[in-house]
Amino acid sequence: QDTQANILVRGEATDAETLERIDAAEAEAGETDSAVILSRGGADTESPIGTMQSVADRNESFNETFTDADTTGDGIPDENIEEVYDELYDVAPDEAANVIYRTDDGEYEALLLTVSVRGSAATADVTSEMRAVAGGIDDDGSHETRSAIATGGPIVNEVIQGQLFDTVIQSLLVTLVTVFAFLGGIYRLQHGSAILGVITLL
Q1: What is the pLDDT of residues 1-13, one digit of tens each?
Q2: What is the mean pLDDT of residues 150-172?
């Protein structure tokens, strides 16, 4: 059964560059092995851009606002983005809330890109690929103003598995060190040689 990975983008939510990066990230997701690919091509995603385009197709008023904000004609608003979000929330509040986070004060703080991934894909592969996709959105530098974090069920599971594995390894190491020390001490007292205790354990 297919599942989902999410890329949460925080900061610069009303900046045109952010939307351009999300658009590029959707295309990159379509090149991954773990993403579900649609019959028409491209990854199966839900994003602010796709949602705005979908609402524009069926709502004449929003279509006008959306088209006016897209001065380059590439299907991505590049000016008056806050006003576009405002009207999207007015005409399709539930759909808007799924991809654009608006605070109680009306500020837009975060965007969400959701990628459908194959249920058979290894969680390690999903995690590495979606983190790479998120990396294309994230500001990489000392003056970071937007961040992108890959999350979702498969990624959380991979992180938990990794932490459990690390915990098990640490516990085994502690146990081994304790046993070595204990046997070494016993054999030193009884036979005058701690090495015999280590050899016995091995």
Answers
A1: 788 999 999 989 9
A2: 70
